[in-house]
Amino acid sequence: PYTGPSADEIMAKRKEFLSPSLFHFYKNPLNVVDGRMQYLFDENGRRYLDAFGGIATVCCGHCHPDVVESIVNHIKRLQHSTVLYLNHAISDFAEALAFKMPGNLKVVFFTNSGTEANELAMMIARLYTGCNDIISLRNAYHGNAAGTMGATAQSIWKFNVIQSGVHHALNPDPYRGVFGSDGEKYAKDVQDIIDFGTTGNVAGFISEAIQGVGGIVELAPGYLPAAYKSIKKAGGLCIADEVQAGFARTGSHFWGFEAQGVVPDIVTMAKGIGNGIPLGAVVTTPEIAEVLTRRSYFNTFGGNPVCTAAGLAVLKVIEKENLQENALVVGSYLKNRLIELKDKHEIIGDVRGRGLMLGVELVTDRQQKTPAKAETLHVMDQIKEMGVLIGKGGFYGNVFRITPPLCFTKEDADFLVDAMDYTMSKM
Ligand code: PMP
Fold it and tell me: Ligand 1, from 22, 139, 142, 399: best to mutate by most atoms within 8 Å of Cβ?
């Protein structure tokens, strides 16, 4: 049993010694002390079904034994910087990752986070093209350092950064966007930005295939092929941010962009790829990778032996436990159950997403699509009391984000939907 400090004691220390900008979920914040696959346990040993941890950290389940064993073995033997010396863990994971990529995407740069990966990807695009302009989508989240915060396009995540060179294109949002599900119409805005906002040449384009922080917005079909075409014509590189949608989560494909039938020039990833261990990566072609030989590129811990050992273990678990298939089967089942719930509860305006990356948008008026922000918080709090954890997102904070570890089962899906149904019925 847990004998550490209580939630109240931790909160008191946070208030005094930690950043005032830290936020937490729930009226009574949850003190999690143990994790086991799709479950988390609080200080009293109470079990919670974790339907959000997949995004935050875990891909194959909290404390998955294979991943833990790999990390422990490596850390007992050696932990060191990524650079300077040789170590097989780093090259083994790079090789395994390259095998998962389409086309000629086979050179890997490791980082510690998604922000670092996107910073690097944007820098590579600028070096390779000699241009500065980058196009990203409104409602996107790409990171919180100077360059990536410029690419991020939601006011809540932006400080006073100099956003030099980033233009934000119309978001191909099938639910709220003006062109509905017609991806090509939205892509015309990318061409307009190139024509009217740049010299006609750009460094590149960056987007997720399914926006995570933005509220599980799957880009309208046909959008990426058309946008990529305009970017390539303008000499730019196409960057796919797979920090949330990658690594088998969407079920139908290993990478989110594959559902749109495109092959990016650069792919970035992080979060789940280390199952909770800080790890990010940028994958590109040998030709593009060449630009980083112009200077020395150094990152002390990006892809160090312990983290890359975790990454390799994750890939093996996905393979061994058929987690992509599970994401497809359980995700489709869960989505269908959520769609049924929408028929029953007026407050659900939209159910969307793919595999185990699903969103449920709450509105007080289906016609006006008025965000039901308070209700979203209420349901989240209520189902937490029943033992189910989900996330929220979207610009208006009115979208449930359901992104569990990929070992989620149909029984888990039923429990989640039943808890939501019960709460909504009582509202
Ligand atoms: N890209 C996407 C799509 C993300 O969701 C995030 C994190 N929310 C990032 C990049 C940044 O990752 P990190 O927090 O690891 O820097």
Answer: 142
pLDDT digits (tens, 9 = 90+) for 36-78: 999 999 999 999 999 999 876 789 999 999 999 999 999 999 9
Q: Which atom of ligand 1 is nearest to the CA of 278?
A: 15
Q: Are residue 346 and residue 223 in the same domain, yes or no?
A: no
Residue 80's domain comprises 65-320
| Separation between Cα atoms, residue 343 and residue 2, nearest integer Å | 43
* 182 shares its domain with 330: no
206: nearest Cα among 194, 226, 224: 224
Report if residue 2 sits inside a domain. no
Residues framing ligand 1 (Cβ under 6 A): 113-115, 118, 141-143, 208, 212-213, 241, 243-244, 270
Task: Looking at the structure, tell me whether residues 362 and 248 fall in a common domain.
Answer: no
CATH number reported for the structural domain that contains residue 38 in this entry: 3.90.1150.10
Count of CB atoms situated within 10 Å of the CB of 214? 25
The one-letter amino acid code at 189 reads D
- Total domain count for the chain? 2
pTM of the complete model beyond 0.95? yes
ipTM over 0.85: yes
